UniProtKB/TrEMBL annotation:
PROSITE patterns: PROKAR_LIPOPROTEIN. Pfam families: Lipocalin_4. This is Lipocalin-like domain-containing protein. Keywords: Signal. Residues 1-18 form the signal peptide. Residues 34-133 form the Lipocalin-like domain. It comes from Flavobacterium album. InterPro entries: Lipocalin-like.
Amino acid sequence: MKKLTMVAFAAAAFTALSCSDDDNNTTNNNATVSGKWMLTAVTASHAVDGNDDGVSSTNLITEGGACFTDSYLQFGANHTVANFLSAPMLGDACFTAEADGEYSVNGNKVTVTVNYEGDNDTTVYTQNGNTLTALVPDFYEVEVTVNGQTTSDSIDATLVFTKQ
């Protein structure tokens, strides 16, 4: 039987470079981005059973617990951004990390660059109304155990933030 267990992942994965949509909407500007955006959906590229309930799902908020829903982006004045990540670890604990950075807006693309532990990480989000969406490659790792043999695998995820 296959058993999947979520393990902690680096906050840098939260800001991996991505760009998945070629739409261009030049009516967006910095004023429409300013404010707090909460993480409202995390969809994995493959179904996992992160909560060991016997049911696999691509909904990582369901599989990983409520930790994800504490994550947010806070867009401020002068193109500043705060990136707060809360993600599940083994057990019921949440891993948290915060990184500050800068953002720019070009059409409906919002480029966020944050510095986490000395490394600059960039994510390109697509804005559609009150949502920001990004496909993040290698978002987290899962341990897969089959017949007593455990290996790790990286899973991509689509993140959706909703303006508050």
